[in-house]
Amino acid sequence: MSAQDLASLDPVEAACALLGAVVRVGEVAIRLTEVEAYGGPEDGPWPDPSAHSYRGPNARNAVMFGPAGHLYVYRSYGLHLCANISVGPDGVAAAVLLRGGEVVEGEECARQRRTPGMPADKLARGPGNLAAALGLDISDNGLDMFSEQSRVRLELPEQRPEVAVASGPRVGISVAADRPWRRWIPGSPGVSAYRRSPRAPALRARMG
Predict the structure, then answer these.
(1) Structure confidence by residue, pLDDT tens digits, 14-69
(2) Rounded to whole angstroms, what are the CA distances from 171 to 155, 187, 200?
(3) pTM of the predicted protein model
(4) Alpha-carbon distance 146 to 28, whole Å?
């Protein structure tokens, strides 16, 4: 697969296509086992009120509106970085959040960036942990992950392996909370636990 392939997919299709792909920064490589799809503004093809791009382009979310295959990095709650990959056509906002993965190369280097003594299966579980294990920086925002000159590379298999894929609601968001745009590989130790935002509508009230 290529950036052109990611540009031809909607956010959920792209999320599925990215499962099993590898993100590499130097000696550390992480196989993606959990991702979440995000769309764009109300007038776009994939309206998504939980997306950073919902209110239109700005300096922070510009990468989401750009060509597919670029790294969108932002700081979450001022505490940790999260990494996304832009998908869909150039000019149309969409991205896939990298929520969890398994360190397949450079475990010792990844471990030095995390809490000492942390089990290997927790090194890249959760979006902030994944970004930390890779050693990402806010200056990586906008990098072309398919460029040979980029320090952050996305390696997609030529043919997607046949793996089981589970789906469910995205984690920790308060609007569009029940949209099943999260995808993961069942049984992978790199998959995080589902946590519903306390600000999301109660399921009982919504169903009643």
Answers:
(1) 999 999 999 999 999 999 999 999 999 999 999 999 999 999 999 999 999 999 99
(2) 25, 18, 11
(3) 0.92
(4) 17
Whether residue 127 contacts residue 100, with contact meaning beta carbons closer than 8 Å, is answered with yes
| Closest by Cα among 24, 2, 39, 27 to 176 | 39
DSSP conformation letters of 125-165: BSHHHHHHHHT--GGGTT-BTT-TT-SEEEE--SS------
For all residues of the chain together, what is the average pLDDT?
91
pLDDT in tens, 93-123: 999 999 999 999 999 999 999 887 888 899 9
Q: What are phi and psi of 167, to 5 degrees?
A: -135, 155
What contacts 87, CB < 8 A, 6 or more positions away? 6, 7, 9, 11, 14, 68, 69, 94, 95, 96
Q: How many CB atoms are closer than 10 A to CB 49?
A: 14
The predicted pLDDT at position 174 comes to: 84
What's the token pair of residue 52? 């950073």
CA angle 147, 149, 155 (to 5 degrees): 45
Structure tokens at 152: 């952050």
Q: At a CB cut-off of 8 Å and minimum separation 6, what does 101 contact?
A: 23, 30, 31, 32, 33, 34, 124, 130, 190
**Angstrom distance (rounded) from CA 180 to CA 166:** 10
